[in-house]
């Protein structure tokens, strides 16, 4: 039962099963929420069907169960949230915060990120399919990260007026994640540092929809070549039969103490101990190599 205003979430894309890197992100967001007596929600970000892997959502849910990472309430699937995204896009277009765009990547590169007048000041709605972009309000953005401290990031030219609905009609990750975080009342986003570059865009969008959450960006697990463990570079799926060993690995990677040996084989006991000893200040700032 939640007793604080803290509300966190884990929001995996079903592009493959969880690997150790995504399990660490799930565990950190879980511990940060539970240590604050907060809620922890699960949202499946199935917004981009061509990138998804059949059965991945079910495998992710089964892995979270196997590791005793229990969420509050029902799972939210972004594939069922299109009406909400459409409503926000229409609202942003009507208020002038967003515009239709038919520029190609090449056009934008040649024009140093500037849009043709046909995009920014259209006389008539553009014919056919067009992307929708948010009108950028800044070229750099500063925010206070709960792990990294003060972060200032440039928003690169060409990426400043960023896409919120793609030309093919699919909603952009940036839009869906912000609409859902706002709708679900998420107060804290604890996630991998691979998403740090998305944060300025998301904060800009959050400011139009309500108050932004606090962000905490975790170090990434990297392989011997220095590449992030990811589905793209074929990081192995976690073995659900080794759940407590996986949790111990992630606790160590997150700079946290580990419980006494007698609690090593029981995920529930291990997590209870880890919640009581969670210290966000111990999370390393540098990416971590895995053997
Ligand atoms: Zn344009």
Indicate the topology.
Elements: E1 7-10, H1 20-35, E2 39-44, H2 56-66, E3 76-77, H3 82-94, E4 98-101, H4 105-110, H5 117-120, E5 131-134, E6 140-145, E7 149-154, E8 163-165, H6 173-183, E9 188-192, H7 199-209, E10 214-218, E11 221-222, H8 243-253, H9 267-277, E12 288-289
Parallel strand pairs: 1-2, 2-3, 9-10, 11-12
Antiparallel strand pairs: 4-5, 5-8, 6-7
Helix pairs in contact: 1-8, 1-9, 6-7, 8-9
How many runs of DSSP E, i.e. beta strands? 12
Strand order of the largest sheet: 1-2-3
Class from helix and strand fractions: alpha/beta
Total of helices = 9
Bound molecules: zinc ion
Strand composition percent: 15-25%
Instruction: Indicate the overall shape.
Output: elongated
Q: Residue ranges: pLDDT <50 for 5 or more in a row? A: none
Terminal residue distance = 39 Å
* CATH fold annotation of the largest domain: Rossmann fold
CATH C-level class of the largest domain is Alpha Beta
- Indicate the radius of gyration in whole angstroms: 20 Å
Mean pLDDT rating? 90
What is the count of structural domains?
2
The fourth-level CATH homologous superfamily of the largest domain is HUPs
Helix content: 25-40%
Major β-sheet annotation: 3 strands, parallel
Task: Describe what you observe in this structure.
- It is a single chain.
- The chain is an alpha/beta fold and 291 residues long.
- It is elongated, with a radius of gyration of 20 Å.
- The model has no long low-confidence stretch (mean pLDDT 90).
- It has 2 domains: 7-79 and 221-285, Rossmann fold; 82-165, Rossmann fold, CATH 3.40.50.
- It is 32% helix and 17% strand.
- Residues 101, 103, 115-116, 119 line the site of zinc ion.
């Amino acid at each position: 039962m939640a007793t604080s205003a803290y509300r966190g979430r884990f929001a995996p894309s079903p592009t493959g099963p969880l690997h150790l890197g995504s399990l660490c992100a799930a565990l950190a967001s879980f511990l940060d929420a539970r240590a604050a007596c907060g809620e922890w929600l699960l949202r499946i970000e199935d917004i981009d069907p061509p990138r998804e892997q059949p059965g991945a959502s079910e495998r992710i849910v089964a892995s979270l169960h196997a590791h005793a990472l229990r969420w509050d309430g029902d799972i939210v699937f972004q594939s069922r949230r299109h009406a909400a995204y459409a409503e926000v896009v229409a609202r942003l277009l009507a208020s002038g915060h967003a515009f239709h765009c038919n520029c190609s990547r090449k056009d934008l590169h040649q024009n140093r990120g500037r849009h043709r007048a046909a995009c920014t000041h259209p006389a008539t709605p553009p014919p056919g399919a067009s992307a929708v972009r948010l009108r950028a309000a800044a070229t750099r953005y500063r925010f206070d990260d709960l792990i990294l401290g003060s972060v200032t990031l440039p928003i690169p030219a060409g990426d400043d007026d960023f896409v919120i609905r793609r030309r093919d009609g699919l909603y952009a990750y940036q839009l869906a994640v912000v609409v859902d975080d706002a709708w679900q009342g998420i107060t804290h986003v604890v996630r991998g540092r691979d998403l740090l570059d998305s944060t300025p865009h998301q904060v800009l969008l959050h400011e139009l929809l309500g108050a932004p959450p606090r962000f905490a960006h975790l170090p990434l697990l990297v392989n011997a070549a220095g590449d992030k463990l990811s589905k793209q570079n074929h990081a192995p799926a976690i073995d659900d039969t080794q759940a407590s060993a996986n949790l111990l690995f992630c606790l160590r990677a997150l700079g946290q103490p580990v419980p006494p040996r007698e609690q090593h084989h029981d995920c529930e006991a291990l997590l209870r101990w880890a919640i009581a000893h969670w210290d966000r200040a111990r999370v390393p700032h540098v990416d971590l190599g895995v053997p």
